[in-house]
Here is the input.
Amino acid sequence: MLTDILILLGVVLVLYLLAIMPKLRKNKDCKRMDGWLYAHRGLHDNQSEAPENSLKAFALAVEHGYGIELDVQLTKDLVPVILHDYSLKRACNADGMVKDMTYAELQKFQLFRSRERIPSLQEALAVIGGKVPLIIELKIPWKADQLCRIVAEQLKDYQGFYVIQSFNPFGLMWYRKYHPEVVRGQLATDFVKEKIEGSRVQYFILKHLLFNFITKPDYIAYHHVYKKALSFTLCRKLYRTKPVAWTIQSQKELEDSKGYYQVFIFDSFRPQKQGE
Here is the structure.
């Protein structure tokens, strides 16, 4: 009886380790992420004229030599725009969803207390101009094909370095199939502790990175608060996958995370660079 239990536990352990196994053959472009601090949604202040995910916030990040993390989703007329929330409520103090409005309709709204508008991906790329690396988060509620295809088309002639990441494994699966050369990252957190509404089963799978065997991410972007999570730790130590921290909000958090992460996405403060 004990032998049977041990065999069963061994099989479960092996299956678990196979499930969380990320990409083992390293993408050489992953190294291009190193040496940069990444401004979350640009170098922004939502009480200023440079709010999050605005062209001014991106220009400021470029000016100060920071990489940029930004969010992309589709409008009703299939224009990829830069906005974190699916709803306009927080950023624009307006009712409605991005997916239900055209790009032209979205231009009626201002971001937070500024005169900035919701930019398109093309506008953002023009401002950034390949001067700093980009972490592009794909905002995918469910189906990934349409957003991924349109974003990939707009990025095909972009001369700067970028990576893509998403909470949604289907986005990574699409890129693995159609653009395996692009560095891709799996976003994760402890969704239950963060009190994010949704399926606990789905969140268990995502928290524990159990789709890695299909998505084969080049890096894992994990909420820095949960840096000791088991699956993340195994990916980092056993499989030697590049760990990316989000979102660091103080110099102390940055220092405390350095033993766990190699790349850092920051927000709400100006981090000290090496040599400063």
